[in-house]
């Protein structure tokens, strides 16, 4: 559970949100499929497998007994740490089971209703991770007997959550900056298009003696020189840019942050898992 929810699921969320750039001309690919989707699918598939295995182990250890909230229990029992841990844990597991089913029956990317799936899939993913983070936090705070060092487990959990939030908000900041640069780039391109359209009409505003129909054929060579657009209009072609908006550096920084997140979160989640296994 720890490895799935603190390493794989956050990595899948970050890759889908910040490595998927619709305006990128040459997106990174792996085996002919965009890299963000490969990471997202692989991480979620492994997380799904680990969650199922962990759930079966917990179910077997408790002999199938439900320790979460019940209508027959008193409010003190339903709001106990053990009960809340079970509630948030099972809620995250249910969402984890629903997400791949929802993804299998999703509509095509060209469908006008695709945004509905995107929003539902994203919101449920965030809810599942938040519920799992609450469940793991309750376990680290109240179930000291299951850890070899409860204080170390808390410190590792806090570091993992802080790492996730810092990575998310820093990536979000870079994403907003990149979007601003892209919008400025589009505005500049639009202004240049309007200038080019104006330059295409330069002959209409020329005096009649510059009209090619009124010029003698014998002076055709000289006429062609006079009929050229002014240099300032010829220089108004749109600038060629290898990457839309000139934000390649921002993309590289985002990719580096996600890579560092994967490495650091893997180490932290393994440390937390070890404190559980050695207890």
UniProtKB/TrEMBL annotation:
CDD domains listed in its UniProt record: Cyt_b561_FRRS1_like
Location of this chain's protein in the cell: Membrane
Topology of the protein relative to the lipid bilayer: Multi-pass membrane protein
Cofactor: heme b
Enzyme class: translocase
Domain Cytochrome b561: 1-177
Main location: membrane
SMART domains: B561
Enzyme Commission number: 7.2.1.3
Superkingdom field: Eukaryota
GO MF annotations, alphabetized: heme binding; metal ion binding; transmembrane ascorbate ferrireductase activity; transmembrane monodehydroascorbate reductase activity
GO annotation, cellular component aspect: membrane
Keywords of this entry: Electron transport, Heme, Iron, Membrane, Metal-binding, Transmembrane, Transmembrane helix, Transport
Transmembrane segments: 39-62, 83-106, 118-140, 152-174, 256-278
One matching Pfam family: Cytochrom_B561
InterPro entries xrefs: CYB561D1/2, Cyt_b561/ferric_Rdtase_TM
Protein name, UniProt field: ascorbate ferrireductase (transmembrane)
